[in-house]
Specification:
The complex is a heterodimer of chains A (106) and B (726).
Chain A: H1 2-25, H2 29-54, H3 63-92
Helix pairs in contact in A: 1-2, 2-3
Chain B: H1 6-26, H2 29-57, E1 66-77, E2 83-92, H3 94-117, H4 124-143, H5 147-165, H6 172-209, H7 220-225, H8 227-233, H9 236-253, H10 262-265, H11 271-280, H12 285-292, H13 294-298, H14 301-322, H15 328-348, H16 352-379, H17 397-411, H18 417-430, H19 437-466, H20 474-480, H21 488-508, H22 512-515, H23 522-527, H24 534-540, H25 546-552, H26 564-572, H27 590-616, H28 626-631, H29 633-639, H30 644-690, H31 698-725
The chains are: A mainly alpha (106), B mainly alpha (726).
């Protein structure tokens, strides 16, 4: 039982690290986007795992799982907005490089 | 009762709204002008209806103050159970009825006159908007049932006056004259505000102390009916200060020394405005206010004496200035200041109804004079200098005769209106019964001498304009050949006003020596309760008016015991009773004295008119400068208006400008701007410092985020890590 939770948290940590590295290394917005999703899902996995860890028949707390759903909803909303931005960028210019999209800086 | 009186205010407001918002769309000067006039005709009809209704009801005593409810305007919950509750309501009483009758009537005539006078002006709809708005505000001022409403009207007419003085605002001079009027009036408003606050404070405290929860310290009716009770417990200094502060406000509005300087400059506005606002109506609102709150002024003989002195002094000063002015409207403007001085002289000696009497007669003849001067200016194609006139009588007969009639009226020739009102003022000064009786005789001679000058300068301006040889400019002769008489819309008002200038005096009052017994004074009886007549004084002293007067005669015993003596004293101090003796007796009796004084003043006026006729007709030529040479410095002193503008300029305006420019340079530029710019500079420098952090690369931001998250985690786990290490 404990092993499963520990393994899950390790997996979540790994996924989060991969996602973070991906955001930092990649230049294409869609891939960055996918990496962000990976990070969010890592968080979801960790939440669910800890919920399982703390679950007791007497308390029956489901907080972690409910938070996971909240995060899924937020992720969906974020996808809607983010993809729209990316599509708009594609329309604006043929090549989309995240490092070139720094109009606010100028 | 009298709910329809609201129509009187509504008509001009509707007219102002239509002309103001739709004037450009209508784009027809005839419609705009006659619409404004028709609205005033409606107003006048309403005023007449109110008057006859009021008369037919035969109200007595305190009933004569009728409040017409409107709507709740301001309601503030106080600390105790009493609310500060101010209604937008009208007060129909003898004073407001009198005022509204001649205000709406003269306004109607002047609106009619303006349709023709302003017919060549592009801004005609704007003109009628302001004019209608002015009448509405003036009616709010005189009909308001409480102090705040009066103040709304007071400021409203000031605003309209400002807008109309600067009506031809493209000329900077006119705009400056408007500003001068407005700023001078601010000084007066400071006074009236403090006066009104003090009244509120004193009366409210009294009402609270005596548990009179129904009474409002802002309501004219409540103030008047409890006046003596409150004034008797007030310290004399407070009463004096209230009166003086209120009088400062009246000085501003009614152009009395030292705040008279704006009125002559107000002549920059169109002539109908000068006639309506700056002669007949608005400038008399100071007299109205003093009469409305007359117990406050009667409470203290000193305040009355100061009012009388300022009035007589202003009358004298303005008359001396009017002697030498060349601009036809300037002469009339100083004449107005002078006549207003007479009114305040009457107020000062406690003869409030006589002041209102003179307000009425003056409104007729002065409006007629101003409209006549407008007709002359119109006929001479914008020429205002009397030196370039002369010989106009032949070409403008109607204007000439109405002007002459009004001149005789203002000079006080029997039996025209000015004779009755001015002589009654002089008589009231002569019989003023107070501790200042000695000084009153001096005021009498001063006022009489002013009457002498009045006759001369009015004769001068009339004969100079209409008689003698034509002295028209070469340019005028070339372009227009000769002046022309005005059309009917302009001459009808002239004729109506001239008629009123003839008859209004004899209708409203006939002195005792003419009737051979008691004087016939319908106006005094009508105004009694509002203007401090015998019955009014009973009311102010807490009595019930007519009943008391009948039962107890003059020795009524009002409800408040200790105020009785006060009230009875006051009752004797006024009126036209025979036991008042003038400061000197001529011919042995009071009646003969009054008669001789009246004959004397008429004789003086006639001599002056004839003298001025001899002087300014025939081969009179202003180029000779005979008067300048004969009188030298005196002439210069008068011609330069006693140098008062120059004195104000050097004492008040220049230091003010210097101070404010210094304040701007030091306080504004250095301090305020320094602080604001300094903050901006510091923040800018800080921004420059941390600006490089923003690289514009997403991966950098991600790194910062990650670093932040790791730091956060480490801080949270610090104790755990330490614990683990140990």
């Amino acid at each position: 039982m404990i092993d499963m939770v520990v393994n899950s948290v390790w997996l979540a940590g790994l996924m989060f690290a991969i996602g973070t590295l991906g955001v930092m290394i990649h230049r294409h917005p869609v891939i960055i986007f996918m990496c962000i999703e990976l990070m969010l899902n890592a968080a979801n996995l960790a939440l669910v795992a800890f919920n399982r860890h703390h679950f007791s028949p007497a308390w029956r707390t489901m907080d972690g799982q409910i938070y996971a759903f909240l995060i899924i909803v937020i992720a969906a909303a974020e996808v809607a907005v983010g993809l729209a931005i990316i599509v708009a960028l594609f329309k604006h210019r043929t090549r989309v490089d995240i490092d070139e999209i720094n109009f606010l800086k100028r | 009762m009298f709910g329809y009186a609201w129509l009187m205010i509504a008509f001009p407001l509707i007219g102002a709204a239509i002309n103001g918002f739709l004037g450009k769309k209508i784009n027809n000067k005839k419609i705009s002008g006659w619409l404004g006039t028709a609205m005033l005709a409606g107003s006048f009809a309403t005023a007449l209806a109110v008057f006859f209704d009021y008369q037919s009801r035969g109200l007595q005593g305190a009933e004569r103050f009728v409040e017409v409810p409107g709507w709740t305007w301001i309601a503030i919950q106080g600390m105790s159970e009493r609310y500060l509750h101010i209604d937008f309501a009208l007060l129909i009483d003898p004073l407001s009825v009198t005022m509204m009758l001649f205000i709406t009537g003269i306004s109607m005539l002047i609106h009619m006159y303006s349709t023709e006078y302003m017919s060549h002006d592009e801004g005609l709809p704007r003109f009628f908007t302001y004019l209608n708005l002015f009448v509405a505000m003036m009616l709010i001022l005189i009909l308001g049932a409480n102090i705040p409403m009066m103040f709304v009207g007071w400021e409203g007419v000031g605003l309209c006056s400002y807008l109309l003085i600067g009506f031809w605002y493209r000329n900077m001079e006119n705009a400056k004259c408007g500003m001068k009027a407005f700023i001078t009036n601010r000084v007066g408003d400071f006074g009236i505000l403090i006066g009104l606050f003090m009244i509120f404070q004193q009366f409210d405290a009294y009402f609270r102390m005596h548990g009179m929860t129904e009474a409002s310290a802002l309501d004219f009716k409540d103030i008047l009916l409890n006046a003596n009770a409150v004034l008797s417990v007030m310290s004399p200094a407070d009463a004096l200060f209230i009166a003086l502060f209120l009088f400062l406000g009246a000085c501003g509005k009614s152009a009395q020394f030292p705040l008279h300087i704006w009125l002559p400059d107000a002549m920059a506005g169109p002539t109908p405005v000068s006639a309506l606002i700056h002669a007949a109506t608005m400038v008399t609102s100071g007299v109205y206010m003093v009469t409305r709150l007359n117990p406050v002024f009667s409470a203290n003989e000193t305040s009355g004496f100061i009012v009388a002195c300022i009035g007589a002094g202003t009358a004298f000063m303005a008359a001396t200035i009017a002697l030498t002015q060349n601009d036809i409207k300037k002469v009339l403007a100083y004449s107005t200041v002078s006549q207003l001085g007479y009114m305040f002289l009457a107020c000062g000696v406690g003869a409030y109804w006589v002041a209102i009497f003179h307000v009425i007669t003056h409104a007729f003849f002065k409006a007629c004079l101003f409209l006549g001067s407008g007709s002359v200016i119109h006929g001479m194609h914008e020429e205002q200098d009397t030196r370039h006139m002369g010989g106009l009588a032949k070409y403008m007969p109607i204007t000439y005769w109405t002007f002459v009639i009004s001149t005789f009226a203002i000079a006080g020739i029997f039996p025209l209106a000015g004779f009755f009102s001015k002589d009654e003022i002089l008589w009231q000064v002569a019989i003023w019964d107070s501790q200042f009786k000695g000084a009153a005789s001096f005021l009498y001679w001063l006022a009489l001498f002013t009457a002498l000058m009045t006759a001369f300068y009015m004769g001068r301006v009339t004969w100079k304009t209409f008689l003698g040889k034509p002295r028209w400019t070469a340019e005028f002769k070339k372009k227009h050949h000769h002046p022309h008489e005005s059309h009917l819309p302009m001459t009808i008002p002239l004729m109506v006003l001239a008629t009123m200038a003839v008859i209004s005096g004899a209708i409203l009052f006939t002195p005792g020596w003419m009737t051979g017994g008691e004087p016939r004074e319908p106006l005094a009886h009508f105004l009694d309760v509002s203007a401090g007549g015998p019955e009014g004084l009973m009311l102010y002293a807490g009595g019930t008016g007519a009943m008391d007067a009948q039962i107890h005669g003059e020795h009524a015993e009002p409800a408040h015991g200790e105020d009785a003596g006060h009230g009875a004293e006051e009752a004797q101090g006024d009126g036209h009773a025979a036991h008042h003796e003038p400061f000197m007796l001529l011919g042995g009796s009071v009646t003969s004295t009054e008669m001789i004084m009246a004959f004397g003043s008429v004789l003086i006026a006639l001599i002056m008119l004839i003298l001025s006729n001899r002087r300014y007709t025939g081969d009179y030529d202003p180029k000779k400068k005979a008067a300048q040479k004969a009188f030298g410095p005196l002439y210069a002193f008068s011609y330069n208006k006693w140098y008062i503008d120059e004195i104000y300029n050097n004492i008040l305006v220049r230091p003010g400008v210097w101070l404010s420019s210094k304040a701007w340079q030091i306080f504004d530029v250095r301090l305020i701007d320094g602080i604001v710019n300094g903050v901006a500079k510091v923040l800018g420098a800080l921004g420059e410092l941390i600006r490089p952090v923003q690289t514009g690369f997403v991966r950098n931001y991600m790194l910062y985020l990650l670093a932040g998250a790791v730091m956060f985690m480490l801080i949270n786990m610090w104790s755990y890590l330490l614990g683990g290490a140990s």
